[in-house]
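Q: Given only this backbone (172 positions), what sequence would you predict?
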């Protein structure tokens, strides 16, 4: 008995509605969510299937944009970057955000750029050496043509990143 895959516009929603016939796909996604470096051979062993099947399914999910990238979670503090913040940006009127997003995306200490709807037009995350560097980034963003307002909230500690829970250090 075959199942018809439903197509929707949001990639994340697509994962949630995979049919029962795609149980192996769901299991592969869960393994990769927990360990993006898991080998095809290791995944196949865990799922009691062949490496060729796992490889084919992963390739298909990459082609369908369900799997967009494989990333590492870097501990910025270990690299000397101790100031983290969420920056909330309002832009002026109907001005195209494309140039603003390009300018901000070029800034080395900006980690994420999200175009949003609501009280703010952009939400950014920044990770800098210290609060002074963070302040300099905020001042720089405020000078970009089309930026009306920049607000921020300092990040004290991270608890979950990219669906991965961060285990508590004994010091916390």
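A: Predicted residues:
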């Amino acid at each position: 008995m075959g199942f018809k895959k439903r197509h929707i516009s949001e990639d994340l929603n697509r994962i949630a509605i995979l049919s029962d016939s795609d149980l192996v796909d769901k299991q592969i996604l869960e393994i990769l969510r927990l360990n993006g470096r898991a080998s095809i051979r290791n995944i196949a062993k865990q799922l009691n299937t062949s490496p060729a099947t796992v490889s084919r399914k992963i390739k298909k999910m990459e082609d369908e944009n369900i799997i967009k990238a494989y990333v590492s979670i870097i501990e910025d503090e270990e690299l000397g970057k101790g100031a983290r913040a969420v920056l909330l940006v309002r832009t002026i009127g109907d001005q195209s955000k494309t140039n603003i997003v390009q300018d901000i995306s070029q800034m080395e200490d900006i980690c994420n750029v999200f175009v949003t709807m609501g009280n703010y037009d952009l939400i950014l995350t920044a990770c800098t050496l210290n609060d002074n560097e963070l302040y300099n980034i905020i001042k720089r963003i405020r000078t970009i043509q089309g930026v009306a307002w920049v607000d921020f909230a300092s990040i004290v500690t991270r608890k979950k990143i990219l669906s991965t829970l961060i285990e508590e250090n004994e010091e916390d």
